[in-house]
Amino acid sequence: MQCPIARSLERVGEWWSILIIRDCVHGLRRFDEFEKSLGISPNILTRRLTGLVEAGLLERRQYSERPPRFEYVLTERGEDFRPVLAALLTWGNKHFAPEGASVVFGNRETGQIADPVMVDRISGRPLSDPVFSTAPGPAAEGDVLERHLRLLNSGIG
Amino acid sequence: MQCPIARSLERVGEWWSILIIRDCVHGLRRFDEFEKSLGISPNILTRRLTGLVEAGLLERRQYSERPPRFEYVLTERGEDFRPVLAALLTWGNKHFAPEGASVVFGNRETGQIADPVMVDRISGRPLSDPVFSTAPGPAAEGDVLERHLRLLNSGIG
Question: What whole-number distance in Å separates Cα of residue B91 and Cα of residue B116?
Answer without folding.
Answer: 10
